[in-house]
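Researcher: Re-running this chain for the archive, since the previous output was lost when a drive failed. Same request as before.
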Amino acid sequence: QKYYQKRGFESARLDPVCDGYIYWTIADVGTPFSSQGLLNQFWQPKATLPKDFSGFNGPTAILAHMTPDVPVMAPGQSRKIEWWISNFDPKPLAGATLQWELIGDDTLRGTIEGIHVAAGEVKKVGETALVASRVARPRQTKLTVELLCKWGLPLSNSWDLWLIPERQPRPESGKDLLASKSVLAAVA
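Model: Regenerated structure tokens:
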């Protein structure tokens, strides 16, 4: 639910012709399997907490548009990240600094300074290129970003990325398999 809702909200905020959006309901309704609410049918917290929404559903949000849009990376693969600010706070954002970090075996960091975004504006503020390093086993990492500005608390957002090891062919692969002549010819 958390990934689905985060992706939906961030897509809406990146849409240049979106005039706004509505969160359907605060609590689940209907069957026990409905998942639109932040709270269950008894108004109790679920795994996705209201604080989890603050990174992408506050007046100002930091957004990341990744190309390709796949959160899994093998060694040597790269992702271009466009950093966007969606500022619907009444105040313009002036002189802010964006700091990002990908925590993994090799931690990567970067900074974009001098960010200016008018009130009511959605604006691209910079780009980052990430290249996946080698990992011995699959691991979940987190890309975090923080916006430091003069007029308020730091804003933050984060995205999960999964790093997988390079696949090594095994000499025994494919032995002891049977296939008809037509299938064998097709896969050979």
